[in-house]
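Q: Two folds, back to back.
A: First:
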Amino acid sequence: MRAEAWLFAGVAGFFLVTDLAYAWFSGQEPAGTAALTVSFVMSSLMSFFFAMNYRRRGLRPEDRRDADVAERAGPLDFFPPHSAYPAMTALGVALLALGVVYGLWLFIIAFGILAGGILGMTFQFVARGE
């Protein structure tokens, strides 16, 4: 992750120089200056994230020239077999959009359905603390 940290540090440096030059030559025009400042902050955040991950975990197999493909093999992630919550969330979003058109009563009902779907997807596979 060291290479990624340096890459995003370079991007952050570019946005910082561009931001300062834009602010100087544009006469403090706020929209472009704000956009470039946010770009600088976000790329700095990514650089910091990658640097901290490298410090904690060290080199990954793809960072070493002598690594084998089998070193990175293994289970990728947990994929749930079935769930009703994505359909519930989609129904909530659709009703929420209709609630904007037809009234506050439908919007409030749809918000409850949407909140239930999001919370269900979030906590569906959380251990119950038994």
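A: Second:
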Amino acid sequence: MSRLLKSSIGRKIAMALSAFFLMFFLLQHFLINFTSLFPDNGDTFNNLSHFMGTNPFIQYAMQPVLIVGVVFHFVMGFILEVKNNSARKISYAKNNSAANSTWMSRNMIWSGAAILAFVVLHFIDFWIPELNTKYIQGDWTGMHNGEFRYFQELQHKFVNPLRVGAYIVAFVFLALHLLHGFNSSFQSMGVNNKYTKGLKTFSKVYAIGIPVGFIIIALFHHFNH
């Protein structure tokens, strides 16, 4: 594995694999959060959240893998950006490579930094309080006043307009990051065949649709709390 990561191609493949893993998690996270819009007073969202928050496999296997995946992806992205910047200095001396690349591809490190800041905020908002409730207070029931607390907590988080604004900005950066990153991941894996056009379309739909969906969820709860 270490030998693979020492090569340029190996690092790109590892980056792509971690990206696919995180994009799968993001889709799953979105689908669960989307159920908070269902007209059932949060019952579906509460049940799914309780399952995810108490299932041993998810808590003790998938959750640590997710954390490692997030750290690995951002560290590897930083390494690739440093090496790409070194390569660009040589390229600029010969031609204007910026003319052949998009703004998104040249600024992945900045959109990634904005997303990382959002992840930290999200951990402070949701994950750390959840760890405190379950592991410090020892409360695994997920209940408050006889009802599941997840839906009420979600609504409460989106009352503050500053927090909602920060989420919207973060999701805009996420869309920009995904617009280049998703398609780039397919290229790193060597996907270049008759399905390439379809994959590009799918990557655009995902890159725009998921962030917009999260923004809709945040705005809905902000204006309907």
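Q: And?
A: The chain has a mean pLDDT of 85.
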